[in-house]
Design goal:
This protein has 126 residues and is mainly alpha-helical. The protein has a single domain, classed as Substrate Binding Domain Of Dnak, Chain:A, Domain 2. 87% of the residues lie in helices and 0% in strands. The chain contains five helices and no strands. Helix 2 runs antiparallel to helix 4, helix 2 runs parallel beside helix 5 and helix 4 runs antiparallel to helix 5. It holds the Pfam family DUF4398.
Length: 126
């Protein structure tokens, strides 16, 4: 019985050691995540996010700056997390901006249709 316990103990120790080494293995630096976040912010800027999604784009810019600072300080896990959050918030700002622009365009088209209907009913020529 002591042999099987010893065998079990060695096996358990091996599993713990391998798990510990795997946890210590570092992931590559989050340069891809930082680049994606930067691109998402630029895309949102191009969609007038400052006008239509000011809070979201401001948060994305702040998270991106924090991610860059964390990366510079060697806090790669924190940098990765912040970069992913920045990209998500920038994507949200982009989507809200596009939605606002589409809604404004739709309202303009509806107003034009109503104006044309009014002209048709009164017999006015354009």
């Amino acid at each position: 019985m002591s042999q099987s316990f010893a065998h079990f103990s060695r096996r358990a120790a091996t599993v713990v050691l391998v798990s510990g080494l795997a946890a210590c293995a570092s992931m590559p630096p989050p340069t891809g995540e930082l680049a994606a976040a930067q691109q998402a912010v630029v895309r949102a800027d191009g969609a007038d996010a400052d006008q239509y999604a000011a809070q979201e784009i401001a948060l994305a810019r702040s998270e991106l700056a924090q991610a860059q600072a964390a990366m510079s300080d060697g806090r790669e896990a924190e940098a990765r997390s912040l970069a992913l959050a920045a990209a998500a918030d920038a994507d949200l700002a982009y989507a809200r901006s596009r939605e606002a622009l589409a809604t404004a365009e739709l309202q303009q088209r509806r107003a034009e249709v109503e104006q044309l209907r009014g002209r048709l009913q009164t017999g006015d020529r354009p």
